[in-house]
Amino acid sequence: MKFFHTLAAAAIAATALLAPQAQATTLKQIEANGVLKVGMLVDFPPFGTMSATGAPEGYDADTAKALAKYLGTKIQIVPVTGPNRIPYLLSGQVDVLVASLGITPARAERVDFSNPYAGIEIMVYGKKDEDVKDGAGLAGKTIGVVRASTQDAGVTKVAPASATIRRFDDDAAAVQALLSGQVPLIGVSNVIAAQINKAAPGRFDEKFSLSSQVQGVAVVPGSDALLAKINAFVADAMKDGTMDKISEQWLGTKVPDFVRTGTAKAALK
Amino acid sequence: MYHFNFTPVFDNFYLLLYGAWLTVRLSFVAMILGLVVSVLGAVARTSRYKILRGLVGAYVEIIRNTPFLIQIFFLFFGLPAVGIALNPNVAALVALVINVGAYGTEITRAGIESVPHGQVEAGRALGLEPVQIFRYVVLKPALRNVYPAMTSQFIYLMLTSSVVSTISANDLASAGADLNAKTFASFEIYLVITAMYLVLSLLFSGLFRLVQHTLFNYPASR
């Protein structure tokens, strides 16, 4: 048995040696190539999807295109998936990730993040005349959520025992319950909330935030010049309305304040 | 090899029992009300008034030819548009009664039509009132004739009631889904829930047999 253990250990060591070392991407290289290779999710609407003609589109795609324009390079979008996006970056197959990568401490150990260009917020959302400002305000109220979603966890945590939580199977049913008046409040993400607001303008508003996560552009650790340039791009794009335009197109609302004023540093605290 | 871990299921077993209790109550009340709807429907369907026959016929065909899921969505999400907002458990009950009533109407009608006309005439010859004739000479033998079909429809109703979890009613299936979301012990949970539905079905079957022995325990007429 011991022999096999040794063998297994050796195999693991060998794999580790073979694994490509993450090498910092320099801004100069990208500028010399004239092409920015961007890793992007294509299965995460409305942030990253494939259009009917097979071209990547969405919030991430437009942000990536604006970034390439800012750098003065062409763009090559490489479709990645949730699990393989960081390996794609670290193995040098893409220069940056604009892949809805939420800024978290665990990920920050592997990659460096720019300041947020997008964000997802989970909130309690409902009828305008409902006076609810925090978890305690849910007392005696009925609130719809999607079973087992982040919203479910968030609402369950803050709602007092007298609140009734109605669990539906998907966003469509929960939203339908709100629209049809079966529940006065639901827990949703800002993305869904924007869609509701489009379908029924002015009837509902945000009550309070349950949690939020911001998404940053990711680069290989140590790519400092590149990261500085990306941060400059994010700051500019936030200021000149580029991000608002992208956000309005894909999420139906301007960039929310928690994204605009957020920084990678604050998100990692 | 999969390692079963039933601890999360049995630690929260009271949740499943609570859900099962609603499933039992929903099904039981729906069966009773469904039977009433079925008998009324069957009487209307065999009446001499054409409009009545047409109306009940339309009800039966609409319900039997549309999915139960859509019917329940219509009641829960659709009706609030005209000011009728039913809470999920009530909407579930109404949907189940309407649904089983349509199938039951057809079953009961078949039963009524299976009663030979001579039997009705015999009742008249004995000097029974029309209401008495309907009750003892037509309806009781009719229900006795279709009893197996009716009870299997009722068992099916109990199993169908699992769909009501989609409108957030707190039945057994919904309790299972909630527990699954909390513990991720899917295989164990659905195994236990399947067993619970099986036990419920067997209990209802036992109840139906008891009713059969009490009500229909007399020699066959033919």
From TrEMBL, chain A:
Q: From which residue to which does the signal peptide run?
A: 1-24
Does Chloroplast show up as a keyword for this record?
A: no
Q: Which domain of life is it from?
A: Bacteria
Which part of the chain is the Solute-binding protein family 3/N-terminal domain? 35-254
Pfam families referenced in this protein's UniProt entry, alphabetically = SBP_bac_3
Provide the alphabetized UniProt keywords.
Answer: Signal
User: Matching InterPro entries, A to Z?
Assistant: Solute-binding_3/MltF_N
What SMART domains does UniProt report for this protein, alphabetically? PBPb
What are the TM regions of this chain, as residue ranges?
none
Keyword check for Signal? yes
Q: Which PANTHER family does the annotation name? A: ARGININE-BINDING EXTRACELLULAR PROTEIN ARTP (PTHR35936:SF17), MEMBRANE-BOUND LYTIC MUREIN TRANSGLYCOSYLASE F (PTHR35936)
Q: Give the protein's recorded name.
A: Solute-binding protein family 3/N-terminal domain-containing protein
Automatic annotation (TrEMBL), chain B:
Tell me which UniProt keywords the record has, alphabetically: Cell membrane, Membrane, Transmembrane, Transmembrane helix, Transport
GO cellular component, alphabetical, reads: ATP-binding cassette (ABC) transporter complex
Membrane-crossing residues? 20-44, 65-86, 154-177, 189-211
**A GO molecular-function descriptor:** transmembrane transporter activity
Is Transmembrane one of the keywords? yes
Among PROSITE patterns, the record links this protein to: ABC_TM1
Q: Where's it found, cell-wise?
A: Cell inner membrane; Cell membrane
InterPro entries for this protein: AA_ABC_transptr_permease_3TM, ArtM/GltK/GlnP/TcyL/YhdX-like, MetI-like, MetI-like_sf
The protein's matches in Pfam families, at most eight in alphabetical order, are given as: BPD_transp_1
Ranges for domain ABC transmembrane type-1: 20-208
Cited CDD domains: TM_PBP2 (cd06261)
A Gene Ontology biological process noted in the UniProt record is:
amino acid transport
- UniProt topology in membrane: Multi-pass membrane protein
| Family, per entry | Belongs to the binding-protein-dependent transport system permease family. HisMQ subfamily.
Q: NCBIfam families per the record?
A: HEQRo_perm_3TM (TIGR01726)
Q: What is this protein called?
A: ABC transporter permease
Give the organism, scientific name. Answer: Thioclava indica
